[in-house]
Amino acid sequence: MNTRNAPGALRELQSACPDVEISTEPAVLESHGLDWTRFRDPAPLAVAFPRKLEDVQALVRHACGAGLAIVPSGGRTGLSGGAVAAGGELVVSFDRMRQMLEFDPVDASIRVEAGMTTGAVQEFAAANDLYYPVSFASEGTSQIGGNIATNAGGIRVLRHGLTRERVTGLKVVTGTGAVLECNRGLIKNASGYDLRHLFIGSEGTLGLIVEATLRLERRPPPGKVMLLGLTGLDALMNVFSDLRRTVALSAFEFLTDKALAHVCAGHELSRPLETECPLYVVAEFDCPGDEAEEAALASFERGVERGWLADGIIAQSAAQNAELWRYREGISESITALRPYKNDLSVRISRVPEFLQRMDALVAEIASDYEVVWYGHIGDGNLHMNIIGPEGLGPDEFEARCHEISNRTYALTEEMGGSISAEHGLGLLKSPWLGRARSAAEIEAMRAIKRVFDPAGILNPGKLFPNDG
After folding, report:
1. Fewest 10 Å CB contacts: which of 105, 143, 159, 469?
2. How many CB atoms lie within 10 A of CB 91?
3. pLDDT, tens digit, for every residue of 81-120?
């Protein structure tokens, strides 16, 4: 791979793509050369802003012929370095491709350009008495193309699944500039390989997603949110199981006392409960009437009687629902200034308590001088581990220490049959450990697939495969 960062390369790019807006403004290079990770300095050649499919094709064709690496850029809210351009790459931003292209009320589906934000899709669905359930804290800025490229999850996977379940069609520009229309919005299609699923979760390494057809749902009944204070880790799965049997859960999120302290300080929130607890849960359930709320309260009372729960609160309005969700959704933003090293792990749901217990013991052994902030999605076994180093530690030393921690963390994750990346992708930070999640045969098969779609190896190098950048 020959990634060039020189005036000559820029002149060739501008000459080959005269209709595409291309910026070399320092502020733009910095803002579009990074995602939410802060372990690399941005150094792209330029940032291109295509407005239509043909612009994307022109950029890719030129890059393919010139040996110029491309980094696709959406909302840049990723947490694994998947959108980082630190080596003279061309950033292709979809900020100018945000159109709603088609709405089919019979199919309850929409076709959108890749740059449309998740929040805009949710708002459009709501305005048409429908529902787009993929939801997370960054939904106001994250883009649909990026959601699909990382198979984003969020807080409602328990009920509605990952982004993959929403996508019924894709239009993609491959690494040669060819256009693929995958599945065309069909519900049933058994005519050969479903290439759509190769691009979902591929982190921009196989092609650039330019359009997506998304399946919407009927609006769910009104929901209510509970914030519960647990007596300890042993109570977590008991509370989850009892609530799931009792009410129609759409979300079940946990956070530790450390996470609660950070979100309260970072967002100037008062503590939600009088009783201080080691673990908290934010749960949401369908509540079309009093019967559902009474059932949830009965589950809470059982939890108190059995020693699982120490305190709790249930929202009485939509505004209170939103207030309680802030204690969970505000965590990531509240610790961003501390430059945490983020791990996004998953195990089978039944193994979550054992995994957390073993991880706590491991961290106490190898990183007792570090703070570890846990939160995540219990309903799908996804745990977010945020490592915060001591004050005064330089970024290079901090990253090196975190890599040491990751070596041990991922070994334990592999031992327990889990994944080193549940919903954030691998990116620059995790690609060296791909072998902890995939066998050698699987990795070679994936490399072979990449050679088919990206023979020149220009698409987001180093973001999935180790030693590839």
Report:
1. 105
2. 27
3. 788 898 999 999 999 999 999 999 999 999 999 999 999 9
- Paired strand residues for 71: 91
SS3 344: strand
Furthest-apart CA atoms within the chain: distance in Å: 73
3-state helix, strand, coil in the chain (%, to 5): 40, 25, 35
- Cβ(279)–Cβ(257) below 8 Å: yes
* Cβ 379 vs Cβ 240: under 8 Å: yes
What's the CA gap between 417 and 427, in Å, rounded?
21
Q: Determine how many CB atoms are found less than 10 A away from the CB of residue 459.
A: 28
Domains and CATH numbers, the chain: 1-220 (3.30.465.10), 223-332 (3.30.70.2190), 339-437 (3.30.70.2740)
Phi, psi of 406 (to 5 degrees): -60, -40
How far CA 25 is from CA of 3, 29, 37, in Å, comes to 19, 6, 21
Query: CB of 102 within 8 A of CB of 126?
Result: no
Residue 334 carries which side chain, given as an amino acid letter?
Answer: S
The whole-angstrom separation of Cα 411 and Cα 156 is: 28
**Cα(143)–Cα(339) distance, integer angstroms:** 23
Pairing between strand 309-314 and 223-230? antiparallel
Please name which of 379, 465, 389 lies closest in space to residue 427, comparing C-alpha atoms. 465
Q: Contact 334/265 with Cβ under 8 angstroms?
A: yes
Q: Write the burial class of residue 436 (CB in 10 Å: 0-12 exposed, 13-18 middle, 19+ buried).
A: buried
Structure tokens at 392: 């005064």
For residue 158, which amino acid is it?
L
299, 242 Cβ separation under 8 angstroms: yes
* Rounded Cα gap, residues 260 and 277, in angstroms: 10
Question: Is pTM, for the whole model, over 0.90?
Answer: no
CA atoms in the 13 A half-sphere facing the CB of 207: 28
Of 46-55, 412-421, 427-436, give the lowest mean pLDDT range.
427-436
